[in-house]
Amino acid sequence: MNNMKSRMLEYLRLLRLQTGAATASAPLIGSLVMGQRDISLLVILFIIGILYHIYGFVLNEYADVEVDKKSSDLQKKPLVSGNIPRKHARFIIIVSCVCACALTIIFFPTLLPILFLLLALTLGGIYDIYGKKIPGTDFILGGSFFFICLSGASTVSYQLTSLTYVVCLLYFVQIVFNNAVEGGLKDVGHDFLAGAKTLAIRMGVKIKEEKLVVTKMFMVFSYGLRIVFIVLLGLLFFQQEIDLWSNEYVFHMVMVVFLAFILFFTLYSFLAPSRFDRSRLKKLFSVHEMSSYFMLLIVLSPLFGLQITMILLLLPSIWYLMFNVVLYGKLLQPQV
Question: N or C: which end of the chain has fewer CB within 10 A?
Answer without folding.
Answer: N
